[in-house]
Amino acid sequence: MSDDLQTRVQLDALDRKILREMQRDASRSLEEIAREVGSSKTPVWNRIRKMREAGVMGPPVAVVDPDALGLEACFFVLIRTSEHEAEWQARFLAALRARPEVQEAHRLAGDIDYILKVRVANARAYDVFYQALISEVRVFNVTALLSMEELKSETALPV
What we know:
Helix 2 crosses helix 3. The protein is built from 6 helices and 4 strands. By secondary structure, the protein is of the alpha+beta class. Residues 11-72 form the HTH asnC-type domain.
C-alpha cells in the first residue's frame, strides 16, 4: 500500500481480520467470513466493498498450481543494462507485460537493475523466452538462476 493510500484508508481490527480471512480463501461465502471474524454479513460486506473501492483489495482471483499446468521450472532472471533512458524503459516494460511467463518484475537498487520471476515448462522454454526478450530489448548482462525447490510461497500479506 502506498503512503498516500495508507493515509486515506484507516483499517481497524475488524478490517484486518476480514483481510486475513479474504487472503486465506476469498471463495468462501460472506456468511462464513462473517462468522470467522465475529460479525454479521452486512457490516462485513460493507467493509469489503469499501476496501475494494479504496484499492486495498483487488478482484478475487484463482491461485493456480504451476506444476499442474506443466510449468515446473521457475527462473529468477537478473538483468543489468547500460541503458536507462525513458524510451528503452518503455520498450522493456512493454516486452515484460507482453510475456505471460513473467510473473513478477522488479526494478532494483544496486548492481542488478531488474529481477524477473519467470515460470516456464523447462530450460528449453526458458531459452525461447530469453531469445525473444533479448531480440526485443538490448540488455548488458542476463543471469538466470533456476530455483531447485520452492521453500515458501505466500500470496497473503501480513495484516
